[in-house]
Fold these 2 entries.
Entry 1:
Amino acid sequence: MTKSESLFNEAVNFIPGGVNSPVRAFGSIGEAPRFIERADGAYMTDVDGNKYLDYVCSWGPMILGHNHPEILKSVLDACKDGLSFGAATRKEVEMAELICEIVPSIEMVRMVNSGTEAVMSAVRTARGYTGRNKIVKFMGCYHGHSDAMLVKAGSGVMTSGVPDSAGVPAGCTEDTLSAIYNDLESVNALFQEMGKDIAAIIVEPVGANMGVVPPSEGFLKGLRELCDKYGSLLIFDEVITGFRLALDGAQGFFGVKPDLTTFGKIIGAGMPVGAYGGRKEIMEMVSPVGAVYQAGTLSGNPVAMAAGLAQLHILKDHPEIYTNLNAMGDWFYAEIDNILKETNANCTINHVGSLGCVFFTENPVDNYASAKTSDTAEFARYCKYMMGHGIYLAPSQFEAMFLSAAHTKPELEQTLEIIKAYFAG
Ligand SMILES: Cc1ncc(COP(=O)(O)O)c(C=O)c1O
């Protein structure tokens, strides 16, 4: 670890906390972050030459594994034609058409550069379309770091124990209402009080930033019904679930149609890409057609589009990828559950398809409050052990494990052995 440590010691002098995103810091497990030199397939190698089986997958984008040859070729070819034009390109049209074809709820889409931007723009569009200001979000759901969304957010906000961010004026969050995930009554109560002022509900259709919290039976459908009743829009934040649970994301997987959807991660195959889209009449609110302003110098960047298009085409042309990935997830997380039971570990495991999370609590975890009952010190011990045995996990209790199509059964079996050895003590 000497090279990672010395890079980290240097980095903290020039980068806040030594990292460009707080979730990359290993502070919650008391270690220096691993500085990664290269990655291939299901593995990453750090600057000290340590090789890790990667269960973070760049926090989701690398669903086909690292360095997929077709994606790499598509990117390198695009680079030869120029890195950015700040003008319209054919690839953007191809991308928009492909997304509209894959995701039935989307008739028009705008490309942006991150999930944060996608959410910020979708929320603005919902407000512009409805002429209302209030947004309902759920405690423990993370929707990026725009001001209005930093209320009881998940992911790094949850790990750092900072409930809200400094630097966010109260005025920016006064229209953000918080509800309890999987608790329709808490949403209903907000609508009963101020339904006619609510522009939208935004939800992660699978909570994946407070660990993994699946939606309970009828929860998403209930949100759809409330939005219909009060003339509000339903926004699915599919930055993690999009093109992961199924080609058409969580909305296809659970059969609930949102009005607007946000994407990130997989849509860019590792390049900085996000997108938001929905029904035409809503999306035509966006500039230059409509009055909702949103723009981006590098949005729809040709190299980023080349990466995303290549990945989405592979996923579309190979539906077996989802069948295999979800079956592998069901098997792998069930095996972990068996280990937890056999060793009497005080843990709970949640999963949906290839997303999963071991919570260090014996309580069922179905929302923010129950996720918070986890013993984060115990998680830190587990995470350190796994990292020490070549298994790269997100260094926080409140993040997901990601499987990719590059993970093989023998590799998962090897991981199970290591998990077993940890819990057997
Ligand atoms: C559900 C969800 N929405 C939005 C975001 C923000 O995306 P980005 O980090 O690309 O800004 C994330 C990031 O993890 C996310 O998980």
Entry 2:
Amino acid sequence: MIWQVYITWLVILGDGLATTWILYVHSSTSVAHVALLLTALVCLTYYLAIVKPAGWAPSAEGSRTLDAPTCQKCRRYKPIRAHHCKKCGNCVLRMDHHCPWTDNCVGVANYGYFSRFLVAVELATGYLIYQDCLLIHGIYASRNVPMNVFDWTRMEFAVLLCVSVTSAFVFMTVGLMTYRTLVNAAQNITTIESWELERVRSQVTRGILAPSAALFPYDLGISRNLKEVYGESVFSWLFGSTNRDGVSFSLRPGSSPDPWPPQDPFEVSTDPYYSDMKTKREVLYNYYKKDQWLNDDGENIADFGVDLSTE
Ligand SMILES: [Zn+2]
Ligand SMILES: [Zn+2]
């Protein structure tokens, strides 16, 4: 295990159990029980997000033959939407990103587990913050009562402030990630692909790629997208994962059967326009190279765990 995982366990258990204790002492037993239950839910979903495999690509050395290139590093098939993860050392199907906080890749097989962990964190911290606010409001309301009637010890008060700040911080930071994860699922796009899409759109704006390149081919409409990512039934949404194999994908009507994103014309086209651009406009050519380009959030594709030498 890496340090991020220890830190996460420490925050989940520390924040959850300390708040539960404060609620036992200063709120009702049922409120404390709900806090404890939500903490347990976060622990369970976190454990599953760590241990559930992301979905490794099939080995190219087995009997199975696939119409997909072979990765030079792990000797597995590398179908569309798969990437070689630098941390895991394998090609991951429909790779979303490598998450340092779960020390696991997020891919086709565990996207649901990862999403449920994030949602559980938001539910739990949302509830804890609400209860913390009620307690703080109660303390404020009793600010004029004599000190000998005031039933909070310094220690309890310090713990309340500590857990309130921690819960609020976690709620906001994980909230951004949760939003991004769910919105991406609704569009059937991975974190890596949304980075690619930004890059492609920028190239379209510059006239380097045709406008059709910016049409994301796996977006099948919200309802179909969510079923592709999380599975067909309510059961799979709540407990399981998608039944997709991560090797072949449905395309939206009218989209090109060619792999997306399109290869950079600088690299593949024989058109003199591009070879000219490669030499005369070297700055622009370098700007869009996969190992150079940064999206609006300043992220490079390597930030998601992708091994650039295999792209
Ligand atoms: Zn690989
Ligand atoms: Zn990985």
